[in-house]
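User: Can you predict the 3D structure of HTH tetR-type domain-containing protein? Sequence below.
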Amino acid sequence: MRAEHLGPQRRRPQVLDTALDIAADEGLAQITFANIAARMGVSRPVVYDCYRTRGDLLAALLERETEVALSRLTAILPPLKTGSVEDMFVEGFRSLLGDVRERPASWRIIFTEDPDPTLAEAISGGRRQLTEHTAAVMRPLFERWQIADLERVLPVLTEVFLGICETSVRTMLAPESTWAPDELADIVGRAAYRALRART
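Assistant: Sure. Here are the predicted structure tokens for HTH tetR-type domain-containing protein:
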């Protein structure tokens, strides 16, 4: 039986969810309009009504998942008034790595090592967005720590922080990984805190 008729606006989230499921099960290369249509029980024109090209679809999927990643990554950074900043970093990484365990396909798309050529520009834009947003959120914490020459140092410390985040995500995603989110968060959370405080 065919799926009920929905307009493109209501259908797009379903298309992206299906694409994400395919990526999780079979890899990015298998995200095609034909495969999406088959899984959804609709005709290919229904998918084309939502996204003009495969590149448009993949870019939209990456954009959606990057927005979620932004909220998770910046949640690691503690508010200005808090108890132990180091413990807050650990808690933040625990939340991040728990999400990686819950939604591995999303994080594989964001941190893919072998990006689909169609995704290259979107991945570059997504990473740039992550870097800019993270730097903006980190600034008040660094000002509180009275880091000297902040304008010059902020981009470097932002990349250090994101590098630790990416390493922790890749570690969780590795097929042979035996890490639990709590266990890994205790290591990388404290490492991130100490790396960022090295300048103070």
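The chain has two domains: 1-52, 55-197. The chain has a mean pLDDT of 86.
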